[in-house]
Amino acid sequence: MRVVIQENYEKMCLWAAHYIAGKIKASKKTPFVLGLPTGSSPIGVYRELARMNQAGELSFANVVTFNMDEYIGLPHEHDQSYWYFMHDNFFNHLVDMKPENINILNGMAEDPEKECARYEEKIASYGGIDLFMGGIGVDGHIAFNEPFTSLSSRTGVRTLTTDTRIVNSRFFGNDPEAVPSQAVSVGVGTVMDSKEVLILINGHNKARALAATVEGGVSQKWTCSALQMHNAAIIACDEAACGELTVDAYKYFLDIERKERL
Predict the structure, then answer these.
(1) How many domains does the chain have?
(2) Domain range holding 162?
(3) CA torsion angle for 20, 23, 24, 30 (degrees, to 10)?
(4) What is the DSSP secondary-structure string of 141-196?
(5) Distances 104 to 132, 222, 258 between C-alpha atoms, Å
(6) Which residues of the chain have pLDDT under 50?
């Protein structure tokens, strides 16, 4: 596992955006398949990728995207749907992203389980995801794979914990009951099948989750810990998120990255 520690959120996002851009440019595979998250962590990354695209520095013409998750019961036009979030924060700002290359789970599907199976099949039809960017919750969940979700899980229906609904209630008028109780989400196994995984972790409130991801035992309690078993997992984090790392681990990752730059 590679852990890239940046001074602050802005520098973390710039590093991640340029890493992703480099992978897209260097890929000899067409299309390049990119997995994407929602939430506050990736907004700075999306902003920089869009800037690069608008400046002619990076093309998305041959990029296919798959998003991690979507609330069940929210139509596209709902301002808290993840379809709306992705278009508002990213896709609408790209000059050459093809709408047919955007894949987001349908939270209004009549048969959610069938929708999840279709999504897995479509990912497979592209030969899998080349790079999956993601974030984690304060309890270490990846996508909507809450604690104690199987580490081999596939895309499916997930019931959200009370804690997750409370955290997300800030987007729903601070009313946890207004937050949908279920979502459709890629599984931990789906993410782990990606050729590369890049996880963003920022802020003091994610410090415990970062420590569990990097130094804890592999456990269903912390679904983020599955990343320890991925051959090409990268954690991009800011200094604020490093408060629970041991001093030895913190110094080790700084030293390794310093030597990588030499």
Answers:
(1) 1
(2) 2-261
(3) -140
(4) -BTTB-TT--TT--SEEEEPPHHHHHHHGGGTTT-GGGS-SEEEE--HHHHHTSSE
(5) 14, 25, 37
(6) none
CA distance 171 to 194: 30
What residues contact 63, with CB distance under 8 A and at least 6 apart?
Answer: 24, 31, 32, 33, 34, 97, 101
155: domain CATH number is: 3.40.50.1360
Structure tokens at 180: 């949908």
pLDDT value at position 240? 97
For the segment 115-156, what is each residue's pLDDT rounded down to a tens digit?
999 999 999 999 999 999 999 999 999 999 999 999 999 999
Residue whose token pair is 């969940």 = 141
Structure tokens at 120: 């897995």
Q: Which residues pair with 233 in a beta bridge?
A: 197
Q: How far apart are CA 217 and CA 206, in angstroms?
A: 17
Do strands 182-185 and 69-71 pair parallel, antiparallel, or not at all (unpaired)? antiparallel
Q: Name the residues annotated as catalytic.
A: 69, 139, 141, 146
CB 126, CB 33: distance < 8 Å = yes
